[in-house]
Write a structure and sequence with these properties.
globular, disordered C terminus, mainly alpha, 0% strand, disordered N terminus, 6 helices
Length: 149
């Protein structure tokens, strides 16, 4: 079995098959690591994560829609807080911070980006993956199973 690194197309295919937030954020963190190390890489996962953040938090909140999943807002807020130290006190704070991060993610491949900014985006992606994964395992989200005796 070869332990060769996955090429960009293979990574895209790996997370595209079962696109969930923890996997997508993890793949974005890998692409950011490649950018930090000045390696050639695609930024497909970074761009997709920016889109997911925009669609799931920013657009919904700006429409004042009730379809914003509170767990999503909490997960994103925790990841932002862990990566940047800024903790959103209200939904509008979370939306502003998420919008800023989504814009930075969209421009991540820009060669003028500072290393510190890429590292902060990577820290956000890793925190998002961790918090989203933990939220996926919350007991209240699982269907109840009956026990037969």
């Amino acid at each position: 079995m070869s332990l060769a690194p996955l090429h960009a197309a293979q990574r895209l295919q790996a997370w595209d098959m079962d696109e969930d937030l923890p996997s997508l954020a993890s793949h974005a963190a890998i692409e950011l690591d490649d950018l930090i190390r000045n390696r050639r890489t695609s930024v497909d996962a970074i761009q997709r994560l920016a889109t997911v953040l925009s669609e799931s938090v920013i657009r919904i909140a700006r429409r004042r829609s009730s379809s914003l999943n509170p767990t999503t807002a909490v997960v994103v807020n925790r990841a932002i807080s862990e990566a940047t130290g800024a903790r959103g006190e209200s939904l509008s704070d979370i939306v502003v911070s998420t919008d800023r991060i989504a814009k930075l993610l969209r421009g991540a491949k820009n060669t003028k980006r500072r290393r510190e900014q890429l590292e902060q985006l990577q820290a956000f992606c890793l925190a998002l993956a961790r918090h989203a994964s933990a939220a996926d395992r919350l007991p209240h989200d699982k269907p109840e199973q009956s026990v037969r005796c």
